[in-house]
From TrEMBL:
SUPFAM superfamilies from the UniProt entry: Dihydrofolate reductase-like (SSF53597)
Protein name as annotated: Pyrimidine reductase family protein
Record-linked InterPro entries: DHFR-like_dom_sf (IPR024072), RibDG_C (IPR002734), Riboflavin_Biosynth_HTPR (IPR050765)
Protein species of origin: Glycomyces niveus
Keyword annotations of the record: NADP, Oxidoreductase
Span of domain Bacterial bifunctional deaminase-reductase C-terminal: 25-231
Length: 245
């Protein structure tokens, strides 16, 4: 385990600190207050600062696909997935397409609109991930602007949806939440890595935790890989630990 100050690391060292251990990998990135709140004034933004955004951007630059639930996309006002010229150049040097693909998970597509910039302005054709029994009248308009992964009945079956992403060659998956999607991924034991920023704030009662929704059967062990400190934020990298004793 390594403890480092983030501002003492070069960009290359930060990229190296987040090298994925396997070709198929699902990492989840969250920020939480020191007392466990996943939002402040309904958003994650006020919990994080410029310092930990550096890691956030490296994680985006390292993925093939960025997966987010519709609650997060709507609350945080996600626009098209774009990267800075430096990050695009880094990806190109790795032999990757200049930007990752955006994938939005929804049960209903309610409150999402094919005219939203996340679809119409996307540099790469996005994906919507929905249950297979969602009526075509609802899904159809999204086919104009996005590919559709249909998996599960009544709700997205995450193991099947992740397999479908991997079949498309989108093997490095970064999930930026939100809490209900993360809760489902934990319940299905699909999470390989949690990147968690703990911000030096007491928010108090009220906001959701980083994981909500269905209860997991067992607590999953994690291995702490490193701690980066930036402006009082602790940027933790956990890998899914072995359950073998
Ligand atoms: N602290 C952080 O790092 C962080 C990160 C992300 C988000 N947030 C915050 O979290 C809040 C949003 O929370 P949230 O839990 O609503 O976000 P979310 O997990 O992004 O979205 C929930 C939505 O995802 C869809 N969904 C979840 N499970 C599904 C399944 N099995 N099948 C199909 N669709 C499924 C549903 O969409 P439909 O309703 O469209 O059917 C559901 O309403 C916002 O306030 C945001 O700011 C914080």
């Amino acid at each position: 385990m390594v403890y480092r100050k983030l501002d003492e690391l070069t960009d290359d060292e930060v990229y190296a600190a987040y090298a994925p251990p396997a070709p198929d990998w699902l990492r989840v990135n969250f920020v939480s207050s020191a007392d466990g709140a996943a939002t402040l004034e309904g958003l994650s933004g006020p919990l994080s600062g410029e310092e930990d955004k550096r890691v956030f951007k490296v994680l985006r630059a390292r993925c093939d696909v960025l997966l987010a639930g519709s609650g997060t996309v709507k609350a945080e006002g996600y626009g098209p997935l774009v990267l800075s010229p430096e990050r695009m150049a880094w990806r190109k040097a790795q032999g990757l397409p200049e930007v990752p693909v955006m994938a939005v998970v929804s049960r209903s597509l309610a409150g999402l609109d094919p005219a939203m910039g996340i679809f119409t302005l996307a540099p790469r054709r996005p994906i919507v991930v929905v249950p297979a029994d969602l009526p075509e009248a609802t899904v159809g308009p999204f086919r104009e602007v996005a590919d559709v992964i249909a998996a599960g009945t009544g709700a997205v079956d995450f193991p099947a949806a992740l397999a479908a992403l991997r079949e498309l060659g989108l093997r490095q998956i970064l999930c930026e939440g939100g809490p209900r999607v993360f809760g489902e991924l934990i319940a299905d034991d699909l999470v390989d890595e949690l990147d968690l920023t703990v911000s030096p704030l007491l928010v108090g009662a009220g906001p959701v935790r980083v994981a909500e929704g269905p209860a997991a059967k067992d607590a999953r062990p994690l291995e702490l890989r490193h701690v980066l400190e930036a402006g009082g934020n602790l940027i933790l990298r956990y890998l899914r630990g072995s359950t073998d004793e």
